[in-house]
């Protein structure tokens, strides 16, 4: 029987296990260990970057995988699975979902988003497509192109999207209200309360990365808060 992976992740937590080159936990073995820890904690799925990390995690963990491949091209600001080549490598690595930049920014190979999605459907029919968007209009456009999921991943990371420190819950609410395609809430979710608020706004599932899997950032927040509290105490 074919698994309905979209239904399997409904109402769940998707943990983004990513580390960039130069960071302390960079490397497939560390991300695989992080994914196993996330699975033990009750994660419904994993989101991961690069074919190497996807392969390592799939060997260690049987949760559904949203794979992406961050790659920078000199002629474009699109870097999340920017071309068909990256999508194919992620699919070949074993990811059940491939996430890609579905913003209105120009793509590096001159292809339109519609052309990229059509090419992925043709060459990688086994994968489901997750559209990472930054605005309501981009989400609507991606839905019309037939993607399987829309994620608010890039809100606040494009020049034309809402710039704020909090999760873009209003974007989640507006997209989910369309009832066209399941919506993932992602981006700047730091607390369980924020995650719950996203679900209440209509999110199909919630993606959390930095607040769980980047200890240097978690430590920085704690250290800053404690330092500030200490300074206030000594100032009294």
Briefly summarize what is shown.
Helices cover 42% and strands 15% of the residues. The chain has 236 residues and is α/β, with parallel strands linked by helices.
What does this structure look like?
The protein has 236 residues and is of the alpha/beta class. It has helices at residues 5-8, 28-40, 51-60, 84-93, 113-123, 136-144, 169-177, 192-200, 210-213, 215-235, and strands spanning 13-17, 45-49, 65-68, 97-101, 128-132, 149-151, 183-186, 205-208. The longest helix has 21 residues, at 215-235.
State the main characteristics.
single chain, 236 residues, alpha/beta, eight-stranded parallel barrel, 8 strands, globular, EC 5.1.3.9, isomerase
Which runs of at least 5 residues are low in confidence (pLDDT < 50)? none
Mean pLDDT: 96
Please give the radius of gyration in angstroms: 18 Å
* Helix count from the secondary structure assignment: 10
How much beta, percentage-wise? 5-15%
Structural class: alpha/beta
What is the global morphology? globular
Strand arrangement in the largest pleated sheet: 1-2-3-4-5-6-7-8
**Main sheet properties:** 8 strands, parallel, barrel
* Helical amount: 40-55%
The CA-CA distance between the termini, in Å, is 66 Å
Number of strands: 8
> Could you spell the SSE succession in H and E letters?
HEHEHEHEHEHEHEHEHH
């Amino acid at each position: 029987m074919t698994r309905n992976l979209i239904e399997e992740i409904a109402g769940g937590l998707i943990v983004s296990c990513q580390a960039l080159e130069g960071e302390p936990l960079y490397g497939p073995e560390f991300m695989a260990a992080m994914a196993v820890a996330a699975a033990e904690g009750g994660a419904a799925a994993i989101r991961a970057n690069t074919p190497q990390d996807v392969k390592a995690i799939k060997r260690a963990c049987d949760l559904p995988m949203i794979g992406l491949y961050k790659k920078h091209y000199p002629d474009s600001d699109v870097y999340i699975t920017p071309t068909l080549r990256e999508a194919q490598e992620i699919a070949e690595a074993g990811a059940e979902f491939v996430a890609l930049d579905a913003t209105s920014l120009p793509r590096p190979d001159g292809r339109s988003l519609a052309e990229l999605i059509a090419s992925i459907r043709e060459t990688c029919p086994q994968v489901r497509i997750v559209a990472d968007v930054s605005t309501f209009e981009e989400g609507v456009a991606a839905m019309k192109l037939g993607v399987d999921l829309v994620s608010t991943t890039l809100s606040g990371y494009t020049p034309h999207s809402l710039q704020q420190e909090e999760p873009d819950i209003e974007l989640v609410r507006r997209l989910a209200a369309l009832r066209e395609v399941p919506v993932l809430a992602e981006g700047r979710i730091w607390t369980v309360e924020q995650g719950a608020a996203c679900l209440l706004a209509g999110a199909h599932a919630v993606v959390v990365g930095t607040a769980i899997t980047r200890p240097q950032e978690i430590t920085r927040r704690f250290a800053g808060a404690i330092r500030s509290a200490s300074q206030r105490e000594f100032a009294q």
